[in-house]
Amino acid sequence: MTFSQPPIPHPEYGSRVFRRRIRLENHDAAVIAGLEDNLHACRLWLHHDGSRIVAVEAEWLRQPNRNCGGAIAQLGLLAGHELTASRAAFRAHDDPRRHCTHLHDLLGLACAQALRATPRREFDVTVPDPRDGVTVAEIRVDGRLLHRWRTDLQQILDPEEARGGTFFRGFGPWSAARWSGDALEAAAVLQMGIIISGSQRVDLDAMRRLRPDVPLLSRERVNACYAYQAERIDTALPTQGTVRDFTDCPEAMLAFT
Q1: Distance (Å, rounded) from C-alpha 189 to C-alpha 102?
Q2: How far is CA 56 from CA 34, 166, 227, in A?
Q3: 181 dihedral zone (left: phi>0; alpha: psi -120 to 50; beta)
Q4: Is a pLDDT exceeding 80 seen at residue 71?
Q5: How far is Cα 202 from Cα 243, in angstroms, rounded to an integer?
Q6: 0.85 exceeded by pTM
C-alpha cells in the first residue's frame, strides 16, 4: 500500500493473524454471499435464472472509505450477463477496476456457486503477521486445506511447485496455468487475502483520525478501484472505527449473515 501520509506502524504487528471468511449459500434462484475480514464486512444477493444474472443487491456493514457504498449500484450493470464458474470469464464482463474489488470478487464467487449442486461453500483465509519477513498463509474450503504457502507477502516461496508466483501482477494467468476447479478458485481467494493482510503493518484507525479529511491512499492509486476512480478520488475519505481484529475470535466473522 502507498499512503498519502507517513504510515503509523501498528504496535501489535507481528503478533496477530489476518483472517478473511467468505460464505456462499444457494437459495432457490438466488445466492446469498457474505465476506468479512479486518477491514471489510459486506453481503450480497445474486438473483439469477439458472443461466444469467437477473439482479444484484448488496450491503456494506463496514467499509474502508465513504465512496465504497456507490459501488453497489455499479454491480447492477452486470445484470444480463451469463453465469460462469470461470473467474477470467466473469472479469471479462466489465473492467474490474470500475468496481469495488471485494464486491466484484464476491459476485464472481456467487456466480460460480449458482452453478453448483452443493448448497453451501465457505472459504477461510489465515495469514499470520510475518516473522523475519516471512509467514505461512493458508486457505481452507469447507474445512479442507487447499493451499499452504510460505510467503513474504510479495511472492510464494514454497511449496516448490508454486514458487515464484507473485501476487500483484499476472497472478490470474499464472495460477490458471497451474490449477483448475476448486484449487484455482481457492488460489484467487488466498491471493487477495494475502494482499489485504499487508494492512496489518500500520495503525489504520490512528492514521484515519489524524487526517480524516484526506484520502488515506495516495493518488498513485487513481483508477485502481471504484472508490479511487479519477472522478471521485478526492472524495474517497476514510471511515472511522471500522478496523477489527479476529486473531483470537474467528467464530465472530460473518455473524451478520
Answers
A1: 10
A2: 13, 32, 19
A3: left
A4: yes
A5: 11
A6: yes
